[in-house]
Specification:
CATH class of the largest domain: Alpha Beta
CATH topology of the largest domain: Rossmann fold
Radius of gyration: 19 Å
Distance between the termini: 51 Å
Mean pLDDT: 93
CATH superfamily of the largest domain: P-loop containing nucleotide triphosphate hydrolases
Strand content: 25-35%
Largest sheet: 6 strands, mixed
Strand order of the largest sheet: 6-7-8-3-9-10
Number of strands: 12
Helix content: 25-40%
Length: about 260
């Protein structure tokens, strides 16, 4: 199967702080791919490098079969990005911001206007009396998601897309994402909601700080009530496997 994303020995340092160290992985085209790790493990930094928001300190990246750098403008037009910071121009209204994004990605005025109208209606963002700064966190997340998909990208990067969004909005977004991959497009998603990742994604990679890959594999067996075998143990859900791989544990507070 052709690869949508290839990472070879990716590294990112901030002075003496190593955020990602020697990360290599491959994501096939048409995959709903979960990229998981504890807080501070380097997930957002990796997405920043893959989308040109950050310059890596070392390594190579390929997107859709082409070498990717921060100057790869043509590839960026084929990508959609929903960063953790959202990247909204908050003085604008939702329709203004989405129209700006659509035109930036090369959509003509007629197509842009039609898609903005459809997205705002589908995501229940038709109230034009408020600027983005006046929106709730969940509404701003919906706008950021709309901005990431308005140009129908071939590869979609989503950093914690479901956080703060109500169940109806999450259900709609998941429906769109499934259709997205059915068309052969690729979704690269980070989330701390492991149950959602387990139901939505076909494969995952799990990293620990500083951006080190500890496991990558197919998790579709879990949806079929099967189990993943690792280190002599059977795991029937993603959460216990994640905790085992990352060494996460929590102290018992006896006063609770």
């Amino acid at each position: 199967m052709d690869s949508a994303i290839v990472i070879r020995h990716l590294a990112k340092e901030y002075g003496a702080v190593v955020a990602v160290e020697d990360l290599s992985l491959t994501v096939p085209k048409g995959a709903m791919f979960g990229f998981l790790g504890p807080n501070g493990s380097g997930k957002s930094t990796t997405i920043g490098c893959l989308t040109g928001l950050l310059d890596p300190s070392g390594g190579e990246m390929e997107i859709l079969g082409e070498r990717f750098t921060a100057e790869s403008v043509g590839l960026k037009r084929r990508m959609g990005v929903m960063p953790e910071s959202l990247g909204l121009f908050e003085p604008l209204y939702a329709h203004e911001f989405l129209a700006f994004v659509g035109r930036m990605f090369g959509l003509d005025e007629t197509t842009t206007r039609a898609r903005v109208t459809e997205l705002l209606a589908a995501l229940e963002l038709t109230d034009s009396s408020k600027t983005l700064a006046e929106y709730s966190t969940g509404m701003r997340k919906r706008v950021a998601f709309a901005a990431a998909v308005i140009h129908a990208p071939e590869v979609l990067f989503l950093d914690e897309p479901f956080e703060s969004i109500d169940p109806a909005g999450v259900a709609l977004m998941k429906q769109w994402l499934r259709r997205f991959t059915e068309q052969g497009r690729t979704v690269f998603i980070t989330s701390h909601v492991l149950e959602t990742v387990e139901r939505l994604c076909g494969a995952v990679a799990i990293i620990t700080s500083p951006g080190k890959l500890v496991w990558q594999g197919d998790i579709t067996v879990l949806a079929a009530d099967g189990a993943i075998e690792y280190d002599g143990q059977q795991f029937r859900a993603l959460e216990p496997l994640f905790l085992r791989l990352t060494g996460e544990h929590y102290a018992d507070l006896k006063w609770l």
